[in-house]
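User: These chains co-purify. Model them together.
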Amino acid sequence: MNFWKNLFKTEKGPTKGEALFFKLFELFVVIFVLKYAWQWGPYIQQIGEVVLPLGIAQYIDVSFMFEHNISLFSAALISLFTIMGFLRIFPKYSYLIALGLFHLHYVSRFSLGEISHGSNFIGMSLLALGLGLFFFGDKPVQYRRFIMGFIFFFFGLGYTSAAVSKLIGTGLIWPSGEHLWLWIAERSVDVASAKGQFTPNMIQEWIMDYRFLGTLSLIFGLLAEFFGFLFWFEKTRPYIATALIMMHFGVYLTMSIMFDVYIYELLIIGYPWAKLIDRYLNFEENPFLRKTYRWSMKIS
Amino acid sequence: MERREQLKEYQKVTLITLVIYGLLVATHLGEFWPFSIYPMFSQAGNPWKRAIVQDVTQENIDSLWKTTDKNGLPGKTVALNELNVNTNDIANYLSKTEVWTPKKQSGVRKLLQKKINESNLLVYQARGSLSENDKPKVDFIPYLYLSSDTTLLNKDLKVK
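Assistant: Joint model of the two components:
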């Protein structure tokens, strides 16, 4: 029971900082849902055939999304329901409907064989918002606590699961430096294919010269992911968030893969911003802050 | 008391979601967006397959149907970002297609349509693996030749 209390913080009194932070976090999720919806909408129109059916595409033929601008219509509907959710119009169902359409959008966009994880955390956050408003929608303090605890739980689980997958898939030798050599070679083809050319950066050159640097880098990444479950505890959350952000930067420097949305989301939810807002910002003296707070309360 | 009930509700919704999460990923090979077991990079050291597209407008196609290394790639590499095509999509399309039906062939053509109108393209599959001395080795195998009115396939590919 203590674990769940710590996760959802039910004993703590509500604060203005918490309410403002929550609405800003919600805005972040909404912005990225819209970004993906409109990035994928036109792309889906270029697709000719389903090569790998994912999710719901295993049960329905999603090729209807590829023609007649249907994916653009879907992007518009996702945007509409997400914004309705944010403004608390039809609040019980808006985010959940957006999530269902977003799933269809995802399986259509990634029907060519690639399994992308770049949007999973935004999808999980949208699910958290949807469930929070569905079950606790009439009590803002309650749904805020539920949504944040739910996100901490599944983010921590996701990272730890990634480390366990590596240990099951390869075993304890996963962090051997030559494995990173092979991935750097793979990425050199990908980057050349995407940009027309590939020039290794200094860190990639060092790693290709010294195997132990690759091994150290992979050990750090594996440990950071393995301890992802430390996200469940308020005291350890900023430390594991920092380690995971460093890990994501490491992936970028060594393999030229940028999980930018993961970094943003870790920066937002990994640190006690609500406490800092309460401690250092005076809502009464600052008119901009006061207005922002009041406006965010209106749509809570 | 009320907080206790509230906590039980949170716990219940989270655990039911966890069960649904587990069931969906267990029955869908680890992926049911947004649920995932996050298996990326879990198979370390395994050979991989990627793709690269070369503009071979200036080349004679008959001499190009052979496996080569990076330095032997003919023409100029096409930057797929400029066509708004994700390189992973081409790579997966090649690696997951077993029989090259006319529909599959037109699928690649549709992705590269913007460039085919002005250039002749040769789509390569890149195959990487660790050699005996643990150094990475990458071979480039020509798969499809695409021009505005022609599609030619590597003779080793299955066609229907």
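The mean pLDDT of chain A is 95.
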